[in-house]
Amino acid sequence: MSVPSPASQVRPGDETTPIPLQMAPRRRGKPPRHFADLTAAERVASVVEAGEKPFRAKQLATHYFTHFTSDPAEMTDLPAASRTALAETMFPQLIRPTKVMEADGGTTVKTLWHLFDDAKVESVLMRYPQRTTLCVSSQAGCGMACPFCATGQLGLTRNLSTAEILEQVRAAFRALDRGEIPGGPARLNNLVFMGMGEPLANYKAIIETVRTLVAPQPDGLGMSARNITVSTVGLVPAMRKLADEGIPVTLALSLHAPDDDLRSELVPINTRWSVDEAIDAARHYYDVTGRRVSIEYALIKDMNDHGWRADLLGKKLNARGRGWVHVNPIPLNPTPGSIWTASDREVEDEFVARLRGHGIPTTIRDTRGSDIDGACGQLAAEEDDE
Ligand code: SAH
Questions:
Q1: Angstrom distances, CA of residue 288 to CA of 57, 240, 246, 249, 291
Q2: Residue 345, SS3?
Q3: Which residues line ligand 1 (CB under 6 A)?
Q4: What Pfam families would the database entry show (predicted)?
């Protein structure tokens, strides 16, 4: 076992000054209120306020959540005279696609969205033979400052609203439903909060989004909570709060190092909540929800990919019991200007083998979309926009 001395490692500050953690958004403006921001009861109230009968709320919900449309021309069961005004009040345009990039024969689609205030975010749709996954953004930019992540370099512009997130999801449901993604009409099965942003730093909007995602149609999109993954840098109090919500979403913790020295560089929030505190909160999530937690570990060449770190990780996870966790190593996706690269194949194999040797289920995350800068950690909408 060789433990490299800190001086021999490539460090984040070598070529660029690390950017600071940023807890508060730069921009405070709020997008217009949208039907998808509201609870079922609020939708009724809002329709009545607009001078319509209460049952119109259900009709609008059916158009939006069952047929994925907000276009008044498609709402022929509403009175022709008030249809357009009603739809415009309830469904203000919140997100506008300005660039679409495809890979894998059109089964991977990255969309750049412009928001009402010209903030920009991206989402990525990935269709596999057996399932379809959407990766959504929860914030414009991100304040968590992880040095290997493209979004982390942007800083935080602002939180997205519930409807701004749900609109990304509706667009995916719609494209799949209309047969626009090769493979025939389909439903969206999986949703991961792994686009731009730290979801647990936008807690209220994320919880409301999840509630609507899992509500049966037409009140929501009828997704299964277990197929929704919330990925976090390890905001410990929010992880504990999430456990108590009674919605068994899958929790993923971006660990990336099992030791505080290195993790504080790779995931700067570690200076506030340590490796042990983050792993304890992950175990607590499992205790309360019964959902097996994922540990994400971007494998960065000569940085965090040492055998001894795999052993230390295995030990720390096993110290908290068996069968509650699995590890998802992610080959580092290159980001512009980064000095880091993915680990060599043999090193990756060894890392995985060691974890499995400790009895930890371990599966390498695929890097679908990396050729269109649409893989984990590559979303950098501000820079993409010309
Ligand atoms: N803020 C959330 C979501 C981030 S994206 C979080 O940190 O968990 C989802 C995963 O991609 C995180 O584990 C993140 O650390 C990882 N990631 C970021 N940049 C990456 C890169 N360049 N290569 C591989 N994974 C990366």
A1: 35, 9, 9, 12, 8
A2: helix
A3: 144, 146, 148-149, 194, 198, 231-233, 254, 296, 298, 330, 332-333, 335, 376-377
A4: Radical_SAM, RlmN_N
Give phi and psi for 340, each to the nearest 5: -100, 150
Question: Which residue pairs from 1-5 have beta carbons closer than 8 angstroms and sit at least 24 positions apart in sequence?
Answer: 1/307, 1/308, 1/311, 2/306, 2/308, 3/306, 3/308, 4/302, 4/306
Nearest to 90 by CA among 29, 48, 137, 28: 48
Tokens of 39: 């609870």
Taking only the tens place, the pLDDT of each residue in 92-106 is 999 999 999 999 999
Q: With pLDDT > 90 as the criterion, what percentage of the chain qualifies? A: 85
Pairing of strands 132-135, 139-142: unpaired
Distance set, CA 134 to CA 77, 178, 328, 359 (Å):
31, 16, 18, 30
Q: Could you please report the per-residue DSSP string of 148-212?
A: T-TGGGTEEEEEPPHHHHHHHHHHHHHHHHTT-STTSS----EEEE-SSS-GGGGHHHHHHHHHH
pLDDT one-digit tens code per residue, 193-251: 999 999 999 999 999 999 999 999 999 999 999 999 999 999 999 999 999 999 999 99
* Best probe residue, ligand 1, of 121, 330, 370 (max atoms within 8 Å of C-beta): 330
Pocket test for ligand 1, best of 122, 296, 299, 304 (most atoms within 8 A of CB): 296
pLDDT confidence tier of residue 16, bands split at 50, 70 and 90: low
**Residue 128 CB burial class (10 angstroms; 0-12, 13-18, ≥19):** middle
Complete DSSP assignment for 270-311: GGTS-HHHHHHHHHHHHHHH-PPEEEEEEEBTTTT--HHHHH
| Atom number of ligand 1 nearest to Cα 338 | 22
- Nearest CA among 177, 169, 161, 168 for reference residue 221: 169
Cross-strand partners of 122: 112
